[in-house]
Amino acid sequence: QSTLLTIGVGHDIKAEEKLLQLQPNVKLYGADPITAINDDLYSKIGKFFPFAIGNETMKTTASVLTNETEFSEGAEYDIMEMFYRNNAFDGENIVFCQVNMETHSPNKNQKLQFIAFIKTIIREKKYVILRSLTASHNRLYFVNIEDKYCLQKY
Question: Which of the four, 1, 12, 45, 147, has the lowest number of CB atoms within 10 Å?
Answer without folding.
Answer: 1
